[in-house]
Amino acid sequence: MTTRPLPAVASLADDLPTWLPAQRWFAAKGRDIGSAQVERAALLWEGAEPGAPSLLHALVDADGERYQLLLGVVDEVPDHLRGALVGQLEDGLHAYDATHDAELMGGLLDLFAAHSTAGGVDWLPEPGVEIQTGLRARPIGVEQSNTSIVFGEHYILKVYRRPVLGESRDVELHRALAGAGSTRVAAPVAVMRTDDTVLGFAQRFLGDAAEGWATATASVRDLLAEADLHAGEAGGDFAGEARRLGAAVAAVHADLATALGTEPVGQAEMAAGADAMHARLDSVLREVPALAEHEPVLRAAFDAVRGLPGTTVQQVHGDLHLGQVLRTTTGWVLIDFEGEPDAPPAERDRAKSPLRDVAGMLRSFDYAALHLLAGEDPDNQRLTRAAEWAERNRSAFCDGYAEVGADPRADAVLLRAFELDKAVYEVGYEHRNRPDWVPIPLAAITRVTARR
Ligand SMILES: Nc1ncnc2c1ncn2[C@@H]1O[C@H](COP(=O)(O)OP(=O)(O)O)[C@@H](O)[C@H]1O
Ligand SMILES: O=P(O)(O)O[C@H]1O[C@H](CO)[C@@H](O[C@H]2O[C@H](CO)[C@@H](O)[C@H](O)[C@H]2O)[C@H](O)[C@H]1O
């Protein structure tokens, strides 16, 4: 058999500065790319017959940020994949984002099943897992920071778009929880990796799952459609689910503590934590001047943490919100333990107070309640009822948490600071990603600081 030369993907350097920023998962949104190079490209397999696409694995560097691509390379891109075109290569072939190509993606299961080393990547099933091949592949097509492909009703593979050097906390924490017998995560199935970088992670696909965000916002919609009812009276009341979710998060925290340990921290670390919250505020203030009117109350809330004697830290989820929880027929499951997408890896890996996750979820109830009203003329009646929904579910979540762990409301100073710190993060996140939504965390800062 003759092996064709590796397609000239290096020549994509001209197209990447236009193509990358148009992708949902591109991190530096709103910023132009100065230059991009293909750092590493390797063939996973060649097209079986003339005209069939070959699959390549590539890592590209865009202004110092590393991105992972799976590229289909072919003479002519078929019509249904035109939207995925990345560019034309200097040898006349065309490259497209292969994660949109169900047929090519289906072949990845063969690599895992064979424990392959194709493309200089190790395709490794988890110990004891036998990969079933021949399943139909489909990209999930949701707004996400990475790209996930579902195989039949069995597996979901997340291809990390910005793979980081070293071990992946997403994989490690899933393994620790699954190893501890937790039913609150989807079981790990396989990883794709090089010696120093985890590139992808496959898990059991939970086909019976509904996203927490979709379920919670459906409940808010039901409430707002009923002109006179209170949150507890509307048909789609969410409080029972919020309570069960609180208990599930507390159980995950307990399992992570048992599997990976806890650590007491004292006043010096509390002060360092306050400094970090001030530093985040400094940086978001530079981007979003509208935050300035809240600066004094925010700084006071962060400074209050300096007076605390200490707390206990451990591994936590790190970016918990309603989009990171799935309701299955057997209960709530947490997904995506990567941590905040904008945080550097060392910061994501750091042990933290479990109240960080609680604060993230409390913020999310506020988002779920208020995002439906974003862009509407202010209507006090609707706003009050949405706020009532948020309060009802925030409290139910804390009640559920307290059934399994310590009541988060007992640490009011820390919880308030964490909630405000998260809202500051969200102001920056929304400013870069969804400018129409900046008022949601801004309004929350007004409310939380007024609650004092
Ligand atoms: N094990 C799973 N079973 C079913 N759906 C899942 C599973 N894991 C993730 N998903 C779906 O994939 C989406 C993206 O997953 P996530 O891990 O949050 O990716 P990202 O880090 O790119 O945001 C989730 O919102 C959820 O809808
Ligand atoms: O899911 P990711 O890890 O990519 O998290 C990032 O994106 C989230 C938005 O999808 C963002 O979450 C914010 O919006 C959610 C509604 O879309 C809301 O439920 C969250 O409470 C709110 O923080 C998250 O902050 C960001 O890191």
Automatic annotation (TrEMBL):
Matches recorded under InterPro entries: Kinase-like_dom_sf, Mak_N_cap
Annotated EC: 2.7.1.175
Biological process annotations from GO: glycogen biosynthetic process
Superkingdom of the organism of origin: Bacteria
Residue ranges of every copy of the Maltokinase N-terminal cap domain listed in the record: 19-101
Protein family membership: Belongs to the aminoglycoside phosphotransferase family.
Biological or metabolic pathway of the protein: Glycan biosynthesis; glycogen biosynthesis
Pfam family name, one: Mak_N_cap
UniProt-recorded Gene Ontology molecular function terms: ATP binding; kinase activity
Name the UniProt record assigns to this protein: Maltokinase
SUPFAM superfamilies in the cross-refs: Protein kinase-like (PK-like)
Assigned keywords, A-Z: ATP-binding, Carbohydrate metabolism, Glycogen biosynthesis, Glycogen metabolism, Kinase, Nucleotide-binding, Transferase
Catalyses which reaction(s): D-maltose + ATP = alpha-maltose 1-phosphate + ADP + H(+)
